């Protein structure tokens, strides 16, 4: 069976600047890719939110959550996705709000969202929580009412006090443009900003100049993909875009031997403050905090898991403590 190779160069004469190892520079990435159409609206909402919280002296966390898609065609029919559904980000947002933070929740569209997560993405559909009344109205089934009341109250309170801003992305380019722009806007808060980078961001992509314009046809048989490496955006984020904030990145692995070395390598390479290491299979139970001078495991017992305790209830107080040190002294410990 014949196989075709994608990307199909559409403007093959255009040079793509790289660092000699086939990885383009982050600045070049932004020059040769088109910014998302809704970037001005994203920036306007975020500027207003940041101005409001700067005047109040709030601590603000910029959470990224969920997975990015990697389009295979410019007029996209197919794309590569990953496993992340945004549980980490959405759960963390609730604990950050509880800890007094204002939250920018930059999430993959239709991924799990704070508070709503308790009633979505499960076996039960929205209508399964409700019952129709004879007078024509609808009410929540009594067994869910107390929990829904409690969460709805917290959710409304966060919205009423303007402490949560929901912003979204779908594709890798959307994510990268919004990460750059968003972190520069939050930089006005200096040390009071925390960047909590929990999104599962693709390491590979097809630059739009190399991408097929139209739907890839199946008539030629199998499909072979060649993907470029995504530039390392943590580097400019740490050294330029968000230089004064507390930056927390996540490292996901499936081979436990790699977790701590790779997390420490990221910390050394980019020079930020915290890497949280987690394994795919145990990410809801155990995480490892790596800072410049320390390493600490946070873990839940089987009993705590059975009782519905969430690991984020331990992660966020630990980060809030580190962040306070950072605000007070410019050091994490
Ligand atoms: O979204 P989720 O709750 O299913 O998963 C969270 C996670 C594993 C994506 C996150 O904790 C994480 O490790 N993010 C960074 C992944 C990485 O690029 O290494």
| Rounded radius of gyration (Å) | 22 Å
% residues in beta strands: 15-25%
Strand order of the largest sheet: 8-5-2-9-13-14-15-16
Low-confidence parts: 1-16
Q: For the residues shown, what is the average pLDDT? A: 93
Attached small molecules = ligand PAZ
Which second-level CATH architecture applies? 3-Layer(aba) Sandwich
Fourth-tier CATH superfamily name: CoaB-like
CATH class: Alpha Beta
Largest sheet: 8 strands, mixed
Q: What's the total number of strands?
A: 16
Helix and strand element order: EHHEEEHEEEHEHEEEEHEHEEEHH
Count the DSSP helices.
Answer: 9
Protein name: DNA/pantothenate metabolism flavoprotein C-terminal domain-containing protein
Organism: Parasitella parasitica
Domain DNA/pantothenate metabolism flavoprotein C-terminal: 184-303
Family: Belongs to the PPC synthetase family.
Describe this structure in words.
It contains 9 helices and 16 strands. By secondary structure, the chain is α/β, with parallel strands linked by helices. It has a single domain, classed as CoaB-like (Rossmann fold). The longest helix is centred in the middle third of the chain and has 19 residues. The chain is globular and about 60 Å long. The termini are far apart. The relative contact order is 0.17. Bound molecules: ligand PAZ. The site of ligand PAZ has 13 residues, from helix 3 and strand 13. This is DNA/pantothenate metabolism flavoprotein C-terminal domain-containing protein.
């Amino acid at each position: 069976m014949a196989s075709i190779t994608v990307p199909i160069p559409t403007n093959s004469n255009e040079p793509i600047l790289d660092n000699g190892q086939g990885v383009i520079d982050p600045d070049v990435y932004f020059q040769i890719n088109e910014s998302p159409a809704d970037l001005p609206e994203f920036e306007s909402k975020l500027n207003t939110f940041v101005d409001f919280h700067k005047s109040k002296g709030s601590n603000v966390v910029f959470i990224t959550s969920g997975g990015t898609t990697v389009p295979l065609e410019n007029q996209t029919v197919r794309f590569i996705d990953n496993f992340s559904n945004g549980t980490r980000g959405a759960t963390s947002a609730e604990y950050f709000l509880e800890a007094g933070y204002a939250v920018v929740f930059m999430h993959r569209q239709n991924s799990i969202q704070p508070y709503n997560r308790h009633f979505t993405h499960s076996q039960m559909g929205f209508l399964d929580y409700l019952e129709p009344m004879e007078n024509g109205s609808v009410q929540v089934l009594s067994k869910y009412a107390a929990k829904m009341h409690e969460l709805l109250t917290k959710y409304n309170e966060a919205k009423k006090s303007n402490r949560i801003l929901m912003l979204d992305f779908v594709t890798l380019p959307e994510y990268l443009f919004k990460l750059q722009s968003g972190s520069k806007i939050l930089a006005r808060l200096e040390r009071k900003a925390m960047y909590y980078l929990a999104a599962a961001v693709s390491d590979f992509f097809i630059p739009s100049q190399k991408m097929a314009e139209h739907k890839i046809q199946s008539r030629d048989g199998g499909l072979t993909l060649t993907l470029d490496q995504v530039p390392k955006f943590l580097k400019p984020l740490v050294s330029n875009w968000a230089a004064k904030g507390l930056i927390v990145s996540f490292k996901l692995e499936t081979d436990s031997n790699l977790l701590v070395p790779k997390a420490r390598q990221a910390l050394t390479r980019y020079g930020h403050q915290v890497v949280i290491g987690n394994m795919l299979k145990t990410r809801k139970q155990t995480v490892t905090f790596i800072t410049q001078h320390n390493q600490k495991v946070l873990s839940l017992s089987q009993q705590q898991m059975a009782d519905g305790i969430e690991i984020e209830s331990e992660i966020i107080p630990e980060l809030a403590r580190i962040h306070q040190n950072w605000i007070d002294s410019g050091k994490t410990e």
